[in-house]
Design goal:
- Helices cover 44% and strands 15% of the residues.
- The chain is of the alpha/beta class.
- It folds into 2 domains: 8-54 and 152-315, Rossmann fold, CATH 3.40.50; 56-146, Rossmann fold.
Length: 324
């Protein structure tokens, strides 16, 4: 039995479940960004996915696979925002309850969206320990099933469908870059491509202020996260037991970037490509524009997964100092 949580068959099965439910998001290009990157860049626009993030793919796949008996008791998760919205919508579409544990410092717009999709929002202290403990309490009180934000085989398989769609649209890619928080997207991407297109190189993108995946990949052992410090609020989680093995074995490198580079990449997306993404989604573009990535040989066509577009428009990062 493979140690990996999913394989290409699981990702393709997830794609079938998502057909007619999720958006097939477009692939965009921008000549100005190509010129800066020194290669062709193809953006998989998951910020245009339902709930404004790729997270709907994994959430729906997991919710759709629940038996009727289990589903009627509801689902619970902990999330800084995008997965919480995704699970809330998926549960609403199936007609079952959803309980979403959210750190108190999560973006206001994301909290409002979770409530708007019909979920019960439960706030907690902004630590991973508090999120986990609160989710466990809600599970005990309600009998609901945990659908974690990333470390779950069905979630991983669902997230891998974005890479398959990108490959179908642009079959001659040399590489794909995706951001890493808990690792659901990058592990699903790597597991899908290792069978569907093994020639495509997979790179992870991570903030230097939350670089546990880069440290883990470089050392070959799972390094626990330390309290993160980054504007990329969707990339604060540490890797899980299901997401770490594909990152260890199937990702060529995890490249880190400073928040200043992420902000510059985000602004470039807004101003030149008209792609209104959140900071976490700009991290992989910042990597593609970095000196380390630009120095790589054999990459002429690179896919970038733009993971989400949910942010507080009153707190745009170039409007004020975000370091305090």
């Amino acid at each position: 039995m493979s140690e990996y949580a999913a394989d290409l068959a699981d990702v393709r099965a997830a794609a079938e479940r998502l057909t007619g439910v999720a958006h097939r998001t477009p692939v965009a290009t921008c000549g100005a960004i190509d010129a800066r990157a020194g290669r062709r860049v193809f953006f998989k626009c998951e910020h245009l996915q339902k709930v404004g993030a790729f997270k709907f793919r994994g959430a729906w796949n997991a919710v759709a696979r629940l038996s009727a008996e289990v589903a009627r008791r509801g689902v619970v998760t902990h999330s800084s925002g995008n997965h919480g919205q995704a699970l809330a919508l998926a549960a609403s579409m199936r007609g079952i309850p959803a309980h979403v544990v959210v750190p108190s410092d999560a973006t206001r717009s994301k909290k409002e969206a979770i409530r708007g999709y019909g979920a019960r929002l439960v706030e907690c202290e902004p630590t991973l320990e508090a999120r986990l403990a609160t989710a466990e309490r809600v599970m005990a009180e309600t009998g609901s099933t945990m659908i974690p934000p990333y470390d779950h085989p069905d979630v991983i398989a669902g997230q891998g469908t974005a890479a398959l769609e990108l490959l179908e649209e642009v079959p001659d890619l040399d590489a794909v870059v995706a951001p890493i928080g808990g690792g659901g997207l990058i592990s699903g991407t790597a597991l899908a491509l290792r069978e569907a297109a093994p020639r495509v190189r997979v790179f992870g993108a991570e903030p230097t202020g939350a670089d546990d995946a880069a440290q883990s990949h470089a050392s070959g052992r799972l390094v626990p996260p330390v309290p993160p410090r980054t504007i990329a609020d969707g990339l604060l989680a540490g890797l899980g037991r299901h997401t770490w093995p594909p990152i260890r074995d199937c990702v060529e490198a995890v490249i880190t970037v400073e928040d200043a580079d992420t902000i510059a990449a985000m602004r470039l997306c807004w101003e030149r490509a008209k792609l209104l993404v959140e900071p976490s989604a700009a991290v992989p573009l910042a990597v593609v524009l970095s000196e380390r990535f630009r120095a790589l040989d054999g990459i002429e066509r690179v896919g970038v997964i733009l993971t989400g577009g949910n942010l507080d428009l009153e707190r745009l990062p170039w409007m004020k100092d975000t370091s305090t």
